[in-house]
């Protein structure tokens, strides 16, 4: 089983949350951004289902657990600073809680 890289583990062990970007594994469309703590990342690695940390509810949530709009994780990468995760996913249904495919559907003119 893949191990969390040391630089990311150190951030998470200190209580820091890291940004997690979900991207469609095929089209490469950016779907959403959420937060992960250590447990969310470990569960995502183990289950291959995107699991995030909800800051408002102060709890873990599996994407799609209530909506059925799961994110099956195909690949996990991290950036050069070790402060962001990229999840390449197969998205079932909408990624956004508004029902949109992507959370990035609002354009700044």
Automatic annotation (TrEMBL):
Q: In which pathway does it act?
A: Amino-acid biosynthesis; L-histidine biosynthesis; L-histidine from 5-phospho-alpha-D-ribose 1-diphosphate: step 3/9
User: According to its UniProt record, what is one Pfam family this protein matches?
Assistant: PRA-CH
Recorded GO molecular functions are: phosphoribosyl-AMP cyclohydrolase activity; phosphoribosyl-ATP diphosphatase activity
| Reaction it catalyzes | 1-(5-phospho-beta-D-ribosyl)-5'-AMP + H2O = 1-(5-phospho-beta-D-ribosyl)-5-[(5-phospho-beta-D-ribosylamino)methylideneamino]imidazole-4-carboxamide
Phosphoribosyl-AMP cyclohydrolase domain span: 32-105
Q: What are the BP-aspect GO terms?
A: L-histidine biosynthetic process
Q: What is its EC number?
A: 3.5.4.19
Q: Which InterPro entries match?
A: PRA-CH, PRib_AMP_CycHydrolase_dom, PRib_AMP_CycHydrolase_sf
State the UniProt keywords alphabetically.
Amino-acid biosynthesis, Cytoplasm, Histidine biosynthesis, Hydrolase
Signal sequence interval, chain numbering: none
Q: Which SUPFAM superfamilies match?
A: HisI-like
Enzyme class, broadest EC rank: hydrolase
Read off the HAMAP family from this record: HisI (MF_01021)
Q: Which NCBIfam families match?
A: PRK00051.1 (NF000768)
Q: What is this protein called?
A: Histidine biosynthesis bifunctional protein HisIE
Q: Which organism is it from?
A: freshwater metagenome
């Amino acid at each position: 089983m893949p191990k969390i890289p040391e630089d990311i583990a150190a951030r998470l062990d200190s209580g820091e949350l890291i940004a997690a970007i979900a991207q469609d594994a095929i089209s490469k469309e950016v779907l959403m951004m959420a937060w992960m703590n250590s447990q969310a990342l470990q569960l995502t690695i183990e289950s291959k289902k995107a699991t995030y940390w909800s800051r408002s509810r102060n709890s873990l949530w599996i994407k799609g657990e209530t909506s059925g709009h799961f994110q099956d994780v195909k690949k996990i990468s991290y950036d050069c600073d070790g402060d962001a995760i990229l999840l390449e996913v197969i998205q079932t249904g909408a990624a956004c809680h508004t029902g949109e495919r992507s959370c990035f559907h609002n354009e700044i003119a």
